[in-house]
Amino acid sequence: MLDPKLLRSDPELVADNLKTRNFSLDVGTLQALEEKRKKVQTRTEDLQRERNSRSKAIGKAKAQGEDIQPLLDSVEKMGQELSSAEAELSAIQEEISGIMLTLPNMVHESVPPGKDEADNILVRTVGDVPDFDFDPRDHVDLASVNGLMDFKAGAALAGSRFVVMKGEIARLHRALVQLMLDTQTGENGYTEINVPHLVNANTLQGTGQLPKFEEDLFKLEGDFGFYMIPTSEVPVTNTVAGQMLAADSLPLKYTCHSVCFRSEAGAYGKDTRGMIRQHQFEKVEMVQIVRAEQSYDALEQMTLHAESILKKLGLAYRVVVLCGGDIGFGAAKTYDIEVWLPGQNAYREISSCSNCVDFQARRMQARIKNPDTGKTEFVHTLNGSGLAVGRTLVAVLENYQQADGSVLVPEALQPYMHGQQVILEVAA
Fold first, then answer.
1. What is the pLDDT of residue 144?
2. Which pLDDT belongs to residue 264?
3. Is the Cα dihedral 29, 98, 6, 352 positive or negative?
4. Are residues 245 and 343 in the same domain?
5. Which pLDDT score, from 0 to 100, does residue 118 have?
6. Is the pTM of this model over 0.90?
7. Which domain holds residue 54?
């Protein structure tokens, strides 16, 4: 959520910033609501003071033996007026809050303008794209052999965009999870955390998925009000919701392996082949909770932490900074890491690392008391994929494929594969 004080004091500055996102802020409507709120609030406060004054007068008149009925009648009438004013004020405040919850985060000054992903800016390219002396296959053709990556079985069990993995493919998928967790905990300083895969609406509102993106979520029927998590960023970040954290406890760095669920509303017709865009997928997430002055350094650090997995796997990739038209709702700045996929002859996103500054913290009410100033401040929150497991599996299969259809196991994964060096090996 944006700073309401800033929005009230300088809405034009906010509107100008949000233009970088191609978002048009209706300043007139907000200002009209704010003026209305001020008037009703002033009237409400005046009524409260007058009612209190008359209530005190009743006691004084009664002690002096005067007729208090006229005062009682006036206090009762004023109470009715006050109740009406309070209800009106509450409705206006709720309307303003509703609008506030739909406003995206302001972007950092370094975020480039642009309409969509075509306008993202390349930061760096790492590694060499493999040069095959044969026509490389995509992951579906490679791993569907012997039904080890079975999309028909997934569709029979659940529907389209689900998969069943078996044998060497399932083991390789698990090995990737273990490598990611071991790297983030053992080398990059994250604490592993395990969280629920079902959350309530308040939790999703805290990180910005609700109310804006409800159509992208899977909601359980019944009286529980549970949603399936679209990413473990949601529950992990919310572990600090409503807390006054000790300043010296920061930064908090968590990593979490979870299953993620997304309806992919509006995405039909794109990436329907294979594992690129599934309704259910796994991810190793990174979350950092930091002090405000640390957050942009933390963003650079987190991006390097995600890259460290790709470097271990020897995969070619590039890093881009997202333009205003492509950046996520809650992010102030985002780096996307895109891995090379020979089967698509293209770089594809495998991680997004975002600094949300105080946007989520305001929603969650996650704060610290600054030891230098004694003032209460909101923390800054960051999140990033370290990495999307399914897409990393796709990248390994396609980049390490051999002409005969077998796939070499990257050296970093071999300890998790009981020393196995080749999978999908063709029998002689």
1. 86
2. 81
3. negative
4. yes
5. 97
6. yes
7. 26-102
Whole-number Å distance between alpha carbons of 151 and 414:
26
Q: Which residue has 């506030």 as its token pair? A: 100
* 3-class state of residue 345 by DSSP: coil
For the chain, the distance separating the N- and C-terminal CA atoms, rounded to the nearest angstrom, is 61
List the CATH number of the domain containing 59.
1.10.287.40
Q: Judge if 151 and 182 occupy the same domain.
A: yes
166 shares its domain with 282: yes
Tokens matching residue 308? 């460290």
Mean pLDDT of the chain: 94
Closest C-alpha to 230, from 248, 247, 244, 215: 215
Tokens of 154: 């997934």
Distance CA 1, CA 205 (A): 10
Residue 77's pLDDT band (cuts 50, 70, 90)? confident
Residue 413 carries which DSSP code?
G
CA dihedral 384, 331, 363, 1 (to 10 degrees): 180
For the cut 60, the answer to whether the pLDDT of residue 268 exceeds it is no
Range 226-251 average pLDDT: 98
Where helices occur in 314-376 by DSSP H, the ranges are 359-364
Show the CA angle centred on residue 132, arms to residues 408 and 317, nearest 5°. Answer: 75
Which residue bears the tokens 């039909």? 268
Nearest Cα neighbor of 186 from 379, 393, 381, 415 is 415
Same domain, 234 and 334: yes
CATH number of the domain encompassing residue 273: 3.30.930.10
